[in-house]
What does this fold into?
Amino acid sequence: MSRPPLAAACAALLRRDLVLAWRRRGDIAMPVLYALIVATLFPFALGPEEALLQRIAGGVVLVTVLLAMLLALDAMFRGDIEDGSLEQLVLAPQPLALMLAMKILAHWITTALPLIVIAPLLAGMLHLPGAAMPVLLLALLLATPLLSLLGAILVALTAGTRRSGMLLALMLLPLCVPVVIFAAGAVSAAQQGLPWLAPVAWLGAALALALVLAPLACAAALRIALDA
Amino acid sequence: MTASPARPALLEARALAFYRQDEPVFGPLDFQLAEGEIALVEGDNGSGKTTLLRILAGLLHVEEGELRWRGEAWQRDAQLGDVLFLGHHLGLKGDLSARENLAVAAGLYGRRDEPGPADALRRIGLAGYEDEPVRRLSAGQKKRAALVRLLLLPATLWLLDEPYANLDRTGIELVNGLLAQHAARGGAALVTSHGAVSFLGGEPRRIRMHA
It folds into this structure.
Protein backbone atom coordinates (compact mmCIF):
# COMPACT_ATOMS: atom_id res chain seq x y z
CA MET A 1 0.00 0.00 0.00
CA SER A 2 1.35 3.38 -0.91
CA ARG A 3 1.83 5.79 1.94
CA PRO A 4 0.50 9.30 1.69
CA PRO A 5 3.15 11.84 0.66
CA LEU A 6 5.25 13.13 3.51
CA ALA A 7 5.00 16.76 2.45
CA ALA A 8 1.20 16.59 2.45
CA ALA A 9 1.18 15.07 5.92
CA CYS A 10 3.55 17.73 7.25
CA ALA A 11 1.48 20.48 5.67
CA ALA A 12 -1.80 19.04 7.02
CA LEU A 13 -0.45 18.87 10.56
CA LEU A 14 1.22 22.28 10.50
CA ARG A 15 -1.90 23.83 9.04
CA ARG A 16 -4.08 22.16 11.65
CA ASP A 17 -2.03 23.45 14.57
CA LEU A 18 -1.82 26.96 13.14
CA VAL A 19 -5.58 27.06 12.46
CA LEU A 20 -6.25 25.80 15.99
CA ALA A 21 -3.98 28.49 17.45
CA TRP A 22 -5.66 31.15 15.31
CA ARG A 23 -9.13 30.09 16.50
CA ARG A 24 -7.87 30.60 20.05
CA ARG A 25 -5.88 33.75 19.41
CA GLY A 26 -6.55 34.97 22.93
CA ASP A 27 -4.11 32.30 24.09
CA ILE A 28 -1.45 33.65 21.73
CA ALA A 29 -1.81 37.15 23.19
CA MET A 30 -1.35 35.92 26.76
CA PRO A 31 2.46 35.35 26.79
CA VAL A 32 2.94 38.59 24.85
CA LEU A 33 1.04 40.59 27.45
CA TYR A 34 2.89 38.77 30.20
CA ALA A 35 6.28 39.69 28.70
CA LEU A 36 5.16 43.29 28.22
CA ILE A 37 4.11 43.61 31.86
CA VAL A 38 7.20 41.90 33.28
CA ALA A 39 9.53 44.10 31.23
CA THR A 40 7.62 47.18 32.40
CA LEU A 41 8.10 46.19 36.03
CA PHE A 42 11.90 46.51 35.88
CA PRO A 43 12.09 50.30 35.47
CA PHE A 44 9.55 50.60 38.29
CA ALA A 45 11.55 48.34 40.59
CA LEU A 46 15.04 49.61 39.72
CA GLY A 47 14.34 53.24 38.90
CA PRO A 48 14.41 54.87 35.48
CA GLU A 49 18.17 55.50 35.45
CA GLU A 50 19.17 55.08 31.81
CA ALA A 51 22.71 53.74 32.34
CA LEU A 52 21.50 50.95 34.64
CA LEU A 53 18.62 49.92 32.39
CA GLN A 54 20.87 49.99 29.36
CA ARG A 55 23.25 47.58 31.02
CA ILE A 56 20.58 45.05 32.00
CA ALA A 57 18.26 45.49 28.97
CA GLY A 58 19.53 42.55 26.93
CA GLY A 59 19.40 40.11 29.83
CA VAL A 60 15.98 41.28 31.00
CA VAL A 61 14.45 40.86 27.53
CA LEU A 62 15.95 37.39 27.15
CA VAL A 63 14.80 36.15 30.54
CA THR A 64 11.36 37.69 30.09
CA VAL A 65 10.89 36.01 26.72
CA LEU A 66 12.07 32.72 28.18
CA LEU A 67 9.62 32.89 31.08
CA ALA A 68 6.79 33.90 28.76
CA MET A 69 7.52 30.89 26.55
CA LEU A 70 7.43 28.66 29.60
CA LEU A 71 3.83 29.73 30.24
CA ALA A 72 2.62 28.29 26.97
CA LEU A 73 4.92 25.30 26.89
CA ASP A 74 2.96 22.68 28.78
CA ALA A 75 0.04 23.02 26.37
CA MET A 76 2.21 21.72 23.52
CA PHE A 77 0.95 18.13 23.54
CA ARG A 78 -1.72 18.28 26.25
CA GLY A 79 -4.69 18.85 23.96
CA ASP A 80 -3.58 16.09 21.61
CA ILE A 81 -3.23 13.62 24.46
CA GLU A 82 -6.61 14.49 25.95
CA ASP A 83 -8.66 14.21 22.77
CA GLY A 84 -6.89 11.18 21.29
CA SER A 85 -5.28 13.06 18.40
CA LEU A 86 -1.89 11.90 19.57
CA GLU A 87 -2.91 8.25 19.25
CA GLN A 88 -4.01 8.92 15.69
CA LEU A 89 -0.71 10.68 15.02
CA VAL A 90 1.37 7.86 16.48
CA LEU A 91 -0.49 5.28 14.40
CA ALA A 92 -0.28 7.25 11.16
CA PRO A 93 2.05 5.84 8.51
CA GLN A 94 4.40 8.79 8.87
CA PRO A 95 7.70 9.28 10.70
CA LEU A 96 6.52 10.35 14.14
CA ALA A 97 9.62 12.42 14.90
CA LEU A 98 9.05 14.56 11.81
CA MET A 99 5.37 14.99 12.64
CA LEU A 100 6.31 16.13 16.14
CA ALA A 101 8.87 18.50 14.65
CA MET A 102 5.96 20.06 12.74
CA LYS A 103 4.03 20.42 15.98
CA ILE A 104 7.03 22.05 17.65
CA LEU A 105 7.41 24.39 14.67
CA ALA A 106 3.74 25.37 14.91
CA HIS A 107 4.16 25.94 18.62
CA TRP A 108 7.24 28.10 18.03
CA ILE A 109 5.42 30.15 15.39
CA THR A 110 2.46 30.77 17.68
CA THR A 111 4.29 31.46 20.94
CA ALA A 112 7.87 32.54 20.27
CA LEU A 113 7.44 34.51 17.07
CA PRO A 114 5.00 37.06 18.59
CA LEU A 115 7.47 37.50 21.47
CA ILE A 116 10.32 38.13 19.03
CA VAL A 117 8.15 40.69 17.24
CA ILE A 118 7.62 42.69 20.44
CA ALA A 119 11.20 42.19 21.65
CA PRO A 120 12.42 45.45 20.02
CA LEU A 121 9.65 47.27 21.86
CA LEU A 122 10.69 45.74 25.19
CA ALA A 123 14.36 46.46 24.49
CA GLY A 124 13.52 50.03 23.48
CA MET A 125 11.65 50.57 26.74
CA LEU A 126 14.83 49.57 28.55
CA HIS A 127 17.04 51.85 26.43
CA LEU A 128 18.96 49.11 24.66
CA PRO A 129 21.22 50.89 22.12
CA GLY A 130 20.03 50.53 18.55
CA ALA A 131 23.34 48.98 17.49
CA ALA A 132 22.76 45.97 19.74
CA MET A 133 19.18 45.43 18.57
CA PRO A 134 19.96 43.22 15.52
CA VAL A 135 22.18 41.03 17.68
CA LEU A 136 19.41 40.68 20.25
CA LEU A 137 16.95 39.64 17.54
CA LEU A 138 19.44 37.19 16.07
CA ALA A 139 20.11 35.71 19.50
CA LEU A 140 16.35 35.38 20.10
CA LEU A 141 15.82 33.78 16.69
CA LEU A 142 18.33 31.08 17.64
CA ALA A 143 17.56 30.79 21.35
CA THR A 144 13.75 30.53 21.19
CA PRO A 145 13.57 27.50 18.87
CA LEU A 146 16.23 25.88 21.04
CA LEU A 147 14.00 26.43 24.07
CA SER A 148 10.97 25.12 22.20
CA LEU A 149 12.85 21.96 21.29
CA LEU A 150 14.31 21.39 24.77
CA GLY A 151 10.91 22.17 26.26
CA ALA A 152 9.19 19.74 23.91
CA ILE A 153 11.35 16.87 25.19
CA LEU A 154 10.44 17.69 28.77
CA VAL A 155 6.76 18.15 27.94
CA ALA A 156 6.81 14.74 26.28
CA LEU A 157 8.57 13.19 29.26
CA THR A 158 6.09 14.65 31.75
CA ALA A 159 3.10 13.96 29.49
CA GLY A 160 1.87 11.13 31.70
CA THR A 161 1.90 13.15 34.91
CA ARG A 162 -0.83 15.45 36.05
CA ARG A 163 -0.17 19.04 37.06
CA SER A 164 3.11 18.97 35.21
CA GLY A 165 3.36 22.76 34.75
CA MET A 166 5.54 23.50 37.77
CA LEU A 167 7.58 20.33 37.36
CA LEU A 168 8.21 21.35 33.78
CA ALA A 169 9.51 24.76 34.83
CA LEU A 170 11.81 23.23 37.40
CA MET A 171 13.23 20.83 34.84
CA LEU A 172 13.55 23.26 31.96
CA LEU A 173 15.06 26.28 33.71
CA PRO A 174 18.42 24.61 34.49
CA LEU A 175 18.67 23.59 30.84
CA CYS A 176 18.11 27.21 29.88
CA VAL A 177 21.22 28.39 31.67
CA PRO A 178 23.67 27.86 28.78
CA VAL A 179 21.16 29.30 26.31
CA VAL A 180 20.80 32.46 28.41
CA ILE A 181 24.56 32.75 28.93
CA PHE A 182 25.35 32.61 25.22
CA ALA A 183 22.43 34.77 24.10
CA ALA A 184 22.99 37.46 26.73
CA GLY A 185 26.75 37.23 26.16
CA ALA A 186 26.28 38.03 22.48
CA VAL A 187 24.07 41.04 23.25
CA SER A 188 26.39 42.50 25.87
CA ALA A 189 29.41 41.96 23.60
CA ALA A 190 27.62 43.87 20.85
CA GLN A 191 26.78 46.64 23.33
CA GLN A 192 30.47 47.01 24.20
CA GLY A 193 31.56 46.93 20.59
CA LEU A 194 33.22 43.54 20.99
CA PRO A 195 32.92 40.62 18.50
CA TRP A 196 29.67 38.78 19.22
CA LEU A 197 29.81 36.07 16.59
CA ALA A 198 31.24 33.31 18.78
CA PRO A 199 28.37 33.04 21.30
CA VAL A 200 25.85 33.28 18.44
CA ALA A 201 27.67 30.48 16.65
CA TRP A 202 27.43 28.36 19.81
CA LEU A 203 23.68 28.97 19.89
CA GLY A 204 23.45 27.97 16.25
CA ALA A 205 25.40 24.79 16.87
CA ALA A 206 23.20 23.85 19.82
CA LEU A 207 20.11 24.58 17.73
CA ALA A 208 21.34 22.34 14.91
CA LEU A 209 21.93 19.53 17.38
CA ALA A 210 18.52 19.98 19.03
CA LEU A 211 16.74 20.16 15.67
CA VAL A 212 17.94 16.68 14.85
CA LEU A 213 17.77 15.02 18.26
CA ALA A 214 14.85 16.63 20.09
CA PRO A 215 12.06 15.33 17.79
CA LEU A 216 13.48 11.82 18.07
CA ALA A 217 13.54 12.09 21.85
CA CYS A 218 9.99 13.49 21.85
CA ALA A 219 8.76 10.61 19.71
CA ALA A 220 10.29 8.03 22.04
CA ALA A 221 8.98 9.76 25.16
CA LEU A 222 5.43 10.09 23.81
CA ARG A 223 5.33 6.45 22.74
CA ILE A 224 6.26 5.53 26.31
CA ALA A 225 3.63 7.91 27.68
CA LEU A 226 0.93 6.21 25.58
CA ASP A 227 2.20 2.74 26.50
CA ALA A 228 1.15 3.16 30.10
CA MET B 1 -6.07 -24.48 13.67
CA THR B 2 -4.31 -25.15 10.38
CA ALA B 3 -0.69 -24.14 10.43
CA SER B 4 -0.13 -23.53 6.74
CA PRO B 5 -3.04 -21.99 4.94
CA ALA B 6 -2.62 -20.85 1.35
CA ARG B 7 -2.79 -17.28 2.55
CA PRO B 8 -1.73 -16.50 6.09
CA ALA B 9 -4.31 -14.89 8.33
CA LEU B 10 -4.21 -11.13 8.44
CA LEU B 11 -3.79 -11.17 12.18
CA GLU B 12 -3.02 -14.06 14.46
CA ALA B 13 -2.63 -14.08 18.23
CA ARG B 14 -1.13 -17.00 20.09
CA ALA B 15 -1.40 -17.14 23.87
CA LEU B 16 -1.56 -13.37 23.97
CA ALA B 17 -1.71 -12.07 27.53
CA PHE B 18 -1.32 -8.71 29.19
CA TYR B 19 -0.41 -7.77 32.73
CA ARG B 20 -0.59 -4.46 34.49
CA GLN B 21 1.73 -4.34 37.50
CA ASP B 22 1.75 -8.17 37.54
CA GLU B 23 -2.06 -8.22 37.66
CA PRO B 24 -3.40 -10.14 34.67
CA VAL B 25 -5.64 -7.95 32.54
CA PHE B 26 -6.60 -10.67 30.09
CA GLY B 27 -5.44 -13.78 28.40
CA PRO B 28 -4.00 -16.04 27.36
CA LEU B 29 -5.96 -15.47 24.20
CA ASP B 30 -5.79 -17.28 20.84
CA PHE B 31 -7.53 -16.09 17.73
CA GLN B 32 -7.12 -15.58 14.01
CA LEU B 33 -8.60 -12.95 11.81
CA ALA B 34 -8.62 -13.44 8.05
CA GLU B 35 -9.29 -10.83 5.41
CA GLY B 36 -12.99 -10.35 4.94
CA GLU B 37 -13.71 -11.33 8.50
CA ILE B 38 -15.43 -9.27 11.16
CA ALA B 39 -15.21 -10.30 14.79
CA LEU B 40 -16.95 -9.01 17.86
CA VAL B 41 -14.83 -8.75 20.99
CA GLU B 42 -17.07 -9.38 23.95
CA GLY B 43 -16.49 -9.04 27.64
CA ASP B 44 -17.62 -7.27 30.77
CA ASN B 45 -16.33 -3.88 31.85
CA GLY B 46 -12.67 -4.20 32.75
CA SER B 47 -12.18 -7.47 30.90
CA GLY B 48 -9.47 -5.94 28.73
CA LYS B 49 -11.29 -5.24 25.46
CA THR B 50 -9.79 -1.79 25.07
CA THR B 51 -6.37 -3.05 26.16
CA LEU B 52 -6.51 -5.78 23.50
CA LEU B 53 -7.34 -3.25 20.80
CA ARG B 54 -4.58 -0.90 21.94
CA ILE B 55 -2.09 -3.76 21.76
CA LEU B 56 -3.22 -4.72 18.27
CA ALA B 57 -3.00 -1.10 17.17
CA GLY B 58 0.56 -0.92 18.45
CA LEU B 59 -0.03 1.57 21.26
CA LEU B 60 0.79 -0.97 23.98
CA HIS B 61 3.58 -3.49 23.66
CA VAL B 62 2.98 -7.23 23.66
CA GLU B 63 3.82 -8.54 27.11
CA GLU B 64 3.35 -12.23 26.62
CA GLY B 65 2.46 -14.46 23.73
CA GLU B 66 2.89 -13.93 20.04
CA LEU B 67 1.29 -11.70 17.48
CA ARG B 68 1.59 -12.27 13.76
CA TRP B 69 0.65 -9.84 11.00
CA ARG B 70 0.13 -11.33 7.53
CA GLY B 71 2.04 -14.41 8.66
CA GLU B 72 5.09 -12.58 9.93
CA ALA B 73 6.11 -11.56 13.41
CA TRP B 74 4.24 -8.39 14.28
CA GLN B 75 6.19 -5.17 13.72
CA ARG B 76 4.97 -1.70 14.32
CA ASP B 77 6.16 -0.27 11.03
CA ALA B 78 4.79 -3.13 8.93
CA GLN B 79 1.19 -2.41 9.82
CA LEU B 80 1.23 1.37 10.18
CA GLY B 81 -1.44 2.90 8.01
CA ASP B 82 -2.95 -0.50 7.28
CA VAL B 83 -4.69 -0.35 10.63
CA LEU B 84 -7.31 2.17 11.63
CA PHE B 85 -7.86 2.54 15.35
CA LEU B 86 -10.89 4.27 16.77
CA GLY B 87 -10.71 4.50 20.53
CA HIS B 88 -12.70 6.07 23.34
CA HIS B 89 -11.00 9.34 22.58
CA LEU B 90 -12.16 10.12 19.11
CA GLY B 91 -9.11 12.07 17.99
CA LEU B 92 -11.18 15.05 16.90
CA LYS B 93 -10.22 18.67 17.42
CA GLY B 94 -13.17 20.51 18.94
CA ASP B 95 -12.25 23.81 17.32
CA LEU B 96 -12.12 22.30 13.84
CA SER B 97 -15.12 21.30 11.76
CA ALA B 98 -15.81 17.71 10.74
CA ARG B 99 -14.54 18.53 7.26
CA GLU B 100 -11.27 19.98 8.59
CA ASN B 101 -10.76 17.06 10.97
CA LEU B 102 -11.27 14.66 8.09
CA ALA B 103 -8.80 16.57 5.91
CA VAL B 104 -6.12 16.25 8.60
CA ALA B 105 -6.76 12.50 8.96
CA ALA B 106 -6.59 12.05 5.18
CA GLY B 107 -3.36 14.06 5.07
CA LEU B 108 -1.77 11.73 7.61
CA TYR B 109 -3.20 8.40 6.50
CA GLY B 110 -3.89 8.95 2.82
CA ARG B 111 -7.32 8.31 1.33
CA ARG B 112 -9.28 6.08 -0.97
CA ASP B 113 -10.18 7.28 -4.44
CA GLU B 114 -13.85 6.86 -3.64
CA PRO B 115 -15.79 8.50 -2.03
CA GLY B 116 -14.73 12.14 -1.86
CA PRO B 117 -14.69 13.89 1.54
CA ALA B 118 -17.96 15.74 0.93
CA ASP B 119 -19.66 12.54 -0.18
CA ALA B 120 -18.27 10.65 2.82
CA LEU B 121 -19.59 13.27 5.25
CA ARG B 122 -23.01 13.12 3.60
CA ARG B 123 -23.12 9.34 3.79
CA ILE B 124 -22.17 9.31 7.46
CA GLY B 125 -25.10 11.60 8.18
CA LEU B 126 -23.36 14.90 8.80
CA ALA B 127 -24.85 16.76 5.85
CA GLY B 128 -25.44 20.33 6.92
CA TYR B 129 -23.00 20.03 9.82
CA GLU B 130 -19.76 19.76 7.84
CA ASP B 131 -18.53 23.22 8.79
CA GLU B 132 -19.76 23.33 12.37
CA PRO B 133 -16.98 23.17 14.98
CA VAL B 134 -16.99 19.62 16.32
CA ARG B 135 -17.31 20.74 19.94
CA ARG B 136 -20.80 22.10 19.13
CA LEU B 137 -21.98 18.74 17.77
CA SER B 138 -23.91 16.20 19.86
CA ALA B 139 -22.15 13.10 21.20
CA GLY B 140 -23.63 10.98 18.43
CA GLN B 141 -22.62 13.45 15.75
CA LYS B 142 -19.08 13.57 17.14
CA LYS B 143 -18.98 9.80 16.89
CA ARG B 144 -20.08 10.07 13.28
CA ALA B 145 -17.43 12.72 12.63
CA ALA B 146 -14.86 10.16 13.81
CA LEU B 147 -16.48 7.21 12.00
CA VAL B 148 -16.33 9.06 8.69
CA ARG B 149 -12.62 8.14 8.63
CA LEU B 150 -13.72 4.56 7.99
CA LEU B 151 -15.17 5.65 4.68
CA LEU B 152 -12.20 7.65 3.54
CA LEU B 153 -8.97 6.17 4.91
CA PRO B 154 -7.43 3.16 3.18
CA ALA B 155 -6.93 0.68 6.03
CA THR B 156 -7.34 -3.09 5.88
CA LEU B 157 -7.87 -3.76 9.58
CA TRP B 158 -10.31 -1.69 11.58
CA LEU B 159 -10.02 -1.72 15.35
CA LEU B 160 -13.21 -0.15 16.64
CA ASP B 161 -13.62 0.38 20.35
CA GLU B 162 -17.31 0.72 21.14
CA PRO B 163 -18.29 2.15 17.75
CA TYR B 164 -21.98 1.87 18.65
CA ALA B 165 -21.78 4.01 21.78
CA ASN B 166 -23.87 7.18 21.55
CA LEU B 167 -25.29 6.21 18.17
CA ASP B 168 -28.98 6.07 17.39
CA ARG B 169 -30.65 3.19 15.55
CA THR B 170 -29.82 4.53 12.09
CA GLY B 171 -26.26 5.15 13.25
CA ILE B 172 -25.92 1.53 14.36
CA GLU B 173 -27.26 0.35 11.01
CA LEU B 174 -24.82 2.69 9.31
CA VAL B 175 -21.87 1.15 11.17
CA ASN B 176 -23.12 -2.33 10.33
CA GLY B 177 -23.40 -1.31 6.70
CA LEU B 178 -19.83 0.03 6.73
CA LEU B 179 -18.58 -3.19 8.30
CA ALA B 180 -20.38 -5.35 5.75
CA GLN B 181 -19.01 -3.28 2.88
CA HIS B 182 -15.52 -3.42 4.39
CA ALA B 183 -15.67 -7.22 4.72
CA ALA B 184 -16.97 -7.55 1.17
CA ARG B 185 -13.89 -5.82 -0.25
CA GLY B 186 -11.53 -7.97 1.82
CA GLY B 187 -11.11 -5.84 4.91
CA ALA B 188 -11.20 -7.13 8.45
CA ALA B 189 -12.41 -5.60 11.67
CA LEU B 190 -12.38 -6.19 15.40
CA VAL B 191 -15.26 -4.51 17.16
CA THR B 192 -15.72 -4.29 20.89
CA SER B 193 -19.05 -3.98 22.55
CA HIS B 194 -20.26 -4.53 26.08
CA GLY B 195 -23.93 -4.20 25.31
CA ALA B 196 -26.39 -6.09 23.18
CA VAL B 197 -26.44 -4.46 19.79
CA SER B 198 -27.91 -5.82 16.62
CA PHE B 199 -24.48 -6.57 15.25
CA LEU B 200 -24.53 -7.11 11.50
CA GLY B 201 -27.90 -8.80 11.78
CA GLY B 202 -26.51 -12.32 11.67
CA GLU B 203 -24.36 -14.34 14.03
CA PRO B 204 -20.83 -12.85 13.99
CA ARG B 205 -17.55 -14.36 15.06
CA ARG B 206 -17.10 -13.74 18.74
CA ILE B 207 -13.92 -13.39 20.77
CA ARG B 208 -14.74 -13.77 24.42
CA MET B 209 -12.54 -11.92 26.92
CA HIS B 210 -11.98 -13.30 30.40
CA ALA B 211 -10.37 -11.34 33.15
Q: What stands out?
A: Chain A has one domain: 6-227. Chain A has a mean pLDDT of 92. The interface with chain B takes residues 1-4, 8-9, 11-13, 15-16, 19-20, 23-24, 79, 82-85, 87-94, 99, 226-227 of chain A (CB under 8 Å).
